[in-house]
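Schema walk-through. Below, the input block comes first and the output block second. Nothing else is stored per chain. Lengths vary across the set, and this one has 517 residues.
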Amino acid sequence: MRPNSRALEAQDTASSPLLVQDTVESPLLNRADIGPSSLNAGITWACLGSAAIVCLAPLQYGYHIAELNTPKKIITGCAPSVGSRLPQCLPMSDTMFSLATSLFAVGGLVGSLGAGWLAERFGRRGGLVYNNIVFVLGPLLMALAVSPAMLAVGRFVSGVGSGAAVVIAPLYLSEIAPVRLRGTLNLLNQLSIVVGILLTLTVGMVANRGSLWRVSVGGGLVLACAHLVLSALAVESPRFLWARGRRAEARTVLRHLRGVDDVDAEVATWGVSGGDAEQVADDMIADPESPNGTVKPVSSTELRADGTTVTVFNIFRLAQYRRQWLLVLLLQFGQQLSGINTVFYYSSTVLERMFSSQLSSVLTMLIGVLNVVATASAALFIDRFGRRPLLFTSMAAMVVAVTLLGVGLGLGLNVLAAVALYLVVASFAPGFGPVPFLLGTELFDVRAASAGGAWALGANWVGTFIVAMAFLPIQSLIGEWVFAIFVGSLLVCGGVFYVYVPETKGRTIDEIAATFK
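--- output ---
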């Protein structure tokens, strides 16, 4: 039996010192002109607390994406170990290591395509809770690996969890965020990813000897357990509850997140239009504001007026979603074809050509620090100047930075190449990093959000796999001209985005979706 809204509110506000202060405004989080309506609300501590807990999921993705970077040498080569249950290392060829690295992306594709079902079956928060089962299993397999194959399977399993995490988490953030600060709150998704990358690079640098690499690849287990414990303190997405017909509960959660009693104006922006409104009206069997909150559930997977359910299998066949579907595919696929993951996958390999192994580990860790700082800086601009200016400025700067990286490596200009690595990250992190994830949650209405997000991240994982598998072989064939491919991709994608990507700043998700109809 579902608990009533009063019990939910009492449980939410009593469960955490962080969440209990949801009505106390901070000058850093709320502006002075905030009124009593939730449409004017800022980011309360309750909203920020739930967002931070959920962002432990994309943080785990960031941790896993770069976990094999620094310890590559000690994993693949060592003296034979004697009398140990676990071998000190797992000797393997570069091809096998590339496969282990790339299987993470294959798992991510599987996880992202299944994330829509998970988010609709168990909710946004609930889906991420169940996803931690996979996040526990993957690190265990890698930490206890006795063969390269077992390590590769662990990477695949961790990829499955990561794929689901980076679909559901940004969807949750967009659904709990105030309209005018949706970009700022959603930035926590990308910030969590880069913090995870920094964390794994730091752990890898400290544990870069002997069999301590097992601590590095097993570190994700700690993060998964922490997320499982803390998830009880986060609330479910009110938009998900509303679409499921649990409308009194949705209002209670929204009041908790906004710190105000008047949520009517915001709830009205969740309404449906046209024939869909009639369909929802027919489905309701009780007053949404009745004491028991008894209404017939309306699935957020998403009844259209004609009764069609929007899923990953039919979203591309529905005319009202086809343009958004194509755009988010290209946004995510183009992000990976920019070459950014070559920096995180192979930065140690590139830097070790020029510097000692110890120094290259430190320089790689500093790349992670820059990534965090540059991503955090986007919070100053994304809801002030909009998505388009941030995206195009970022892509233009990347064209210059990737070109310099290729020139530096090709001509043996070690200092230029090292500086260019940092410039690539500094260019990518504030714009082309977070904006595709944010737009993937903004271009679809609530009925198609899960399916659209699953496809978007599926495209991201396909791009990740292609780059991870193809970069070193292509580089061995054409040398540093491989970076010309990345530059060309940035130019082509930038032109397409300039023509077709709309500005979404300050608009409700339903208003954005209406522009494509």
